[in-house]
Amino acid sequence: MFTIAGRELRSLFSSPLAWSVLSVVQLILAILFIIRLSLVLQPDIQSQLSMTPSAPSLTDIIVGHIFIWTGIILLLAMPLLTMRLISEERKNKTLVLLMSSPVSMTSIVLGKYLGLMGFFVLMLAMVSLMPLSLVFGGQLDFGQFLIALFGVLLLIGALCAIGLYISALSDHPTVAAISTFGAFLFLWIIDWAGDSEKYSGLFAYLSITRHYQTLLEGLVNTTDIIYYVLIIVLFNILTIHRLDSERLQ
Fold this sequence. Notes:
α4 (58-82) packs parallel to α8 (142-169) and α7 runs antiparallel to α8. This protein is mainly α. It is built from 12 helices and no strands. It starts with a helix and ends with a helix.
């Protein structure tokens, strides 16, 4: 499993697409961070914050903002990398060789999943350096920062599991990418239905962003954690069953 994960991680870093996604994400978030920071440092904003008793903290204003945009950008960028996990191997006829190896399908799926997670964890570590730089010129709530970081990690894990499963369903990486983006968009906008007049608890619970925003506020709710864990476990099991049935055929 870890051998496959290492192989997957190396193949990602040997791909120009992965480097492009990594650099573009860092560039966009760096620009957003600088814009947000320059806005907060304006004298009129500083005076308003100092005069407001219940003013939001620096962590709320900047860290939460950056991690919200991190989640949005990941929803858009992740299908470009998840599409190649299995569908590209199937298209290149290398999936048959992988299935014929003396390795369980669980090890293959989890290896690919962990390899992709390793790439995005590295990306997240680089992103977190921006809010961490606030300690040199202000006060950073490390508790809220770590909880928000944990929330982003759970979101990444859920999106990777969904993308891996959709990649296992298609023979064409482009189709897998479009389908994955559609699934992510559905889980994003379903939150809008929960805010309508006909409020539905089901729609609110299925929303992948509602649980994410709670963690960004520094609030640890077991319901939110269970939601992401269920998605990760469910879609990895579905991927294993899908490839197992294909191996038997």
